[in-house]
Amino acid sequence: MRHLFRCLVAISYIMLHTTVAQAASLPPQASSPVLERVVLIARHGIRSPTHPIAELDARTHRQWQAWPVAPGELTEHGQRDLSLMGMALGQYYREAGVLPAQGCRAGELAVWSDAADRRTLQTGDIMGHAMIPGCPVTPGSLPPGVHDPVFNDLPGQASSTLRQAIMTDLSTALARDRNTRPPSVRLAQEMAQAIIQPAGCTSGLPCYTAPDRAVWSNNAPHLSGGLSQSAEVAENMLLEYAQGMPCAHIGWGHPAMRHAIDTLQPAHTYASQLLRRLPAVAFPRGHILAGMIMDLVTGKAVREPNGDMIAATTPVILFAGHDSTLDMLAAIFGLNWSFADMPDPTGPDTTLGFETWRMPNGQRQVRVVIFHQALDALRMEQFVAIKPDILTLQACHHEQDDRCTMDNFTRIFNDRFKTGN
């Protein structure tokens, strides 16, 4: 009996030490969520108006300020602000642990820029190098000036079926809008009228409160009327302010121009919601980029249009696009956001992020965030250590920690593409 007892003790001792040794050889389990990957989509920096100033003068019967660059080009001021944004993003994701705290690591950042415009090519280059200063970065893109379906897959010659679907939905949205247009948007149009041509609606000059209609031109849908005109002047005045132009020269001497810019901007935001966030436009336009985001978030490798691969091990991916890119992704993924200190939710340098997190139990979850710079910070070229706003995915609002399980996130994407809204 005593011999049996000694054997049992010995066996128990061996089993205990074996278990301890095995446990010691296993990798330690994280006690908190770990950020594994982030996919960023950025709007380009401060640019000049996309139409020549002489054309703006003719349309508004006002003389606009001259810009130091050609139409639609990044300014030097805008390039410096982009660098500040890239530095802030790099600092944030180093602190989050997805970028190395010091030094360089091969394959830590992939950049893909829209080749359609020089401003987006420059944005990818500037932000990429600012995020990991001193490290090699080779932004990818198609040849300059070539249309990139990643950022816009609407065909150059839309089929009659697609065109009819878009125009029907846009006309329906405008018909509904006649009774539902928010008061802030109507106020913005009235402000545009008061600043530019107070008597325009009765004197044959531009009328910024005129009715709106849907038109198809240059193989794309457009809005025509008072809202679209108000949206254009609102964006151009915001860009003038962000560029650092003297307030006395913005708005032709209108008092309290900073407040006026805040009042004008709902016209631009609302026009974008009616057109760019229209599902009939956003889904066919953005399905390639949305699919790439889904694959990257789920840990897959992705092939770029030039044939190069974004490896499954690349922790940070940056796409450099436009405000329209952010709008179409907001529509596809069901996102919405606004800022207290930037009246344009898709203002210069604004960056959307899709983060992949591994939870302590091994489950992978997705968090969607948005980064921005305040309008006055852009104007004064201020570096600010940014903190993102966390966005809610509609189908995951009941989940904790502002994250969505990978299964639910994938389901949201697939369901929305099945229904197209």
Automatic annotation (TrEMBL):
Q: Which UniProt keywords apply?
A: Hydrolase, Signal
Q: Does the keyword DNA damage apply?
A: no
Q: Which SUPFAM superfamilies match?
A: Phosphoglycerate mutase-like (SSF53254)
- Which domain of life, per UniProt? Bacteria
Q: Which Pfam families match?
A: His_Phos_2
Q: What InterPro entries does the record point to?
A: Acid_Pase_AS, His_Pase_clade-2, His_PPase_superfam
Signal peptide positions (record): 1-23
Q: Which GO terms describe its molecular function?
A: hydrolase activity
Q: What is this protein called?
A: Phosphoanhydride phosphohydrolase
